[in-house]
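[09:14] KT: can someone run the structure on this one? pasting the chain below
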Amino acid sequence: MALDPQLLDILACPDTHHSPLTHDADAQTLTCTECGRIFEIRDDIPVLLLDEARQPSAKEA
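[09:31] RB: done, structure tokens below
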């Protein structure tokens, strides 16, 4: 099951800037367009916890 496009339209980074997220369906991740944090999608549920987000590596940035 894929994420609902309407849900993707309203999801935002949980950090104070609340920037939009880009979806990578193959990697099952959401990436913040401002800070670059990468949030995993587990069992079709976005995990938007700052403590569990990973920072982009040099090659991803």
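[09:33] KT: thanks! The first helix runs from residue 5 to 10.
[09:34] RB: yep, looked fine to me
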